[in-house]
Amino acid sequence: MIQKIRENIGLFGIIRLFKFKKKIKPDMNAEIKPEVNYDPRFDSIDECLRKIDRRQKETVLQLEEINELLQDNKTGGNILADTVIDVADRVEEFYRFTVEDGNVQLSEQAQMMWNAVCKSLVSAGFKIIGNANQPEPFNFQCHSAEGIVCDNNVPNEYVLKTLKCGYIYEGEIIRRASVIVNKNQEV
C-alpha cells in the first residue's frame, strides 16, 4: 500500500501524508477525517526537486549523445577530423576558384591562405594527397579519377590536375583526392 502511495504522490507527498493530524469528532460512528497542516515551504522544495529532475533528464540525454559520438568515433568516424577537413575544403575551394578566375592578386592571397592551412593540417598529423605542384603517378588507393586528358608531354597515367585534395589521418585514408589523369594516345 505504501509503495502505491509513493508511486502516486511522490516522496514529499508522503511527508505531507504523515503530517496529517487526525481529528476525531464526538460521534464515535463518524468518519475520521485528516486535517492537513499545509506548509508553503513544501512547494518550494517540490519545485526545486522538479527542476533537479528536469536537469537530470537533460544531462542523461546529453550523456547519451556523447556516448553515441564516442561509439561513432570508435567505429571509424572521426568527427574532429571530418570537421577540420570540411573547413580545409572551403579554403581549398576558394583557392582553386581564385586561380581559375585569373585575378592574380586575389589568387596569391588565397594561395598564401591555402598554404598556411596545409601547414597547419600537416602539423596536426594530416597528410595531404594531391597537393603537389608537379605531376605525380596515379595511385588508385589515394586518387579518384574524375576525368581523363591526353597530354603527350606528361607520362602516361600521371595526375595532371587535382580537383580536390585527399587526406590521410592516423594512417587511414579519410578521403581520396579527386584528380584528372593523363592517358597518352597509343601510337
Verbal overview:
The structure is a single chain. The chain is built from four helices and nine strands, in the order αββαααβββββββ. β7 and β8 form a beta hairpin. α3 packs antiparallel against α4. By secondary structure, the protein is of the alpha+beta class. The chain folds into two domains: 73 residues; 104 residues, Roll (Nucleotide Exchange Factor Grpe, Chain A, domain 2). It is elongated, with a radius of gyration of 35 Å.
Class by alpha and beta content? alpha+beta
| Element pattern in H and E | HEEHHHEEEEEEE
The dominant shape is: elongated
Output mean pLDDT. Answer: 77
Got a strand count? 9
SSE topology sketch:
Blueprint: H1 2-18, E1 21-23, E2 33-35, H2 41-74, H3 79-101, H4 104-123, E3 126-129, E4 136-137, E5 143-149, E6 158-164, E7 166-169, E8 172-175, E9 177-182
Parallel strand pairs: 5-9
Antiparallel strand pairs: 1-2, 3-7, 4-6, 6-9, 7-8
Give structural attributes.
three-stranded antiparallel beta sheet; single chain; Nucleotide Exchange Factor Grpe, Chain A, domain 2; 9 strands; elongated; 4 helices; alpha+beta; 187 residues; four-stranded mixed beta sheet
